[in-house]
Amino acid sequence: ALFIPATFFHFALVLTQRVAKNRAPLLSAYGLTAVFLLLNSSTRIFTHGVAYREGYAYPIPALVYPLFFVSFVVFVMWGTILAFTHLRSVHAERKAAFAIFLAFHLLACVGGMDNFAIMWDIRIFPLYPFGLYAVVLYACAAIYALKKNAFSVAV
């Protein structure tokens, strides 16, 4: 999960051909990812210990983890907004596939939030325990969009 915000933001920048204009935020996203990875693997201020809930193991958030959550939301939402603004410029024959991808992207964002909520022992039905299944549907929508060439970018 550490790499999701930076890689999705990077994907959205490439898709919308805005990498050059947003080089500093992109480098910041990857820099934060590196810092979080280092803190997670070498200290106990990112996460500490494991909590078991209903047979599954979840890391226990520590002092720095809320900053990761905020950066996750910021970079994923920024990329999502870029992708939605890009929808207007998608060719008509690709627009439906791209719109389906975006709809399932939103569903996966909401569904994936249960992974953050459960770490603080928050359970919102049906988000928990079924929300993560939306990510599988998102992957299927991405495959469909790829097959329909919805991500065509002039290089």
Please estimate the helix content: 55-70%
Overall pLDDT: 93
Euclidean distance between termini CA atoms: 29 Å
- Give start-end ranges of low-pLDDT stretches: none
* Share in β-strands: 5-15%
Q: Which structural category fits the helices and strands?
A: mainly alpha
Order of helices and strands: HHEEHHHHH
- DSSP, total strands: 2
Q: Using the CA coordinates, give the radius of gyration.
A: 17 Å
- Count of DSSP H/I helices: 7
The 3D shape can be described as: flat
Order of the strands making up the biggest sheet: 1-2
Q: What is the makeup of the main sheet?
A: 2 strands, antiparallel
Structural descriptors:
two-stranded antiparallel ribbon; 8% strand; 155 residues; flat; mainly alpha; single chain; 2 strands; 7 helices
List the helices and strands and how they pair.
Layout: H1 4-15, H2 23-42, E1 47-53, E2 56-61, H3 65-87, H4 92-112, H5 114-119, H6 127-130, H7 133-147
Antiparallel strand pairs: 1-2
Helix pairs in contact: 1-2, 1-3, 3-4, 4-7
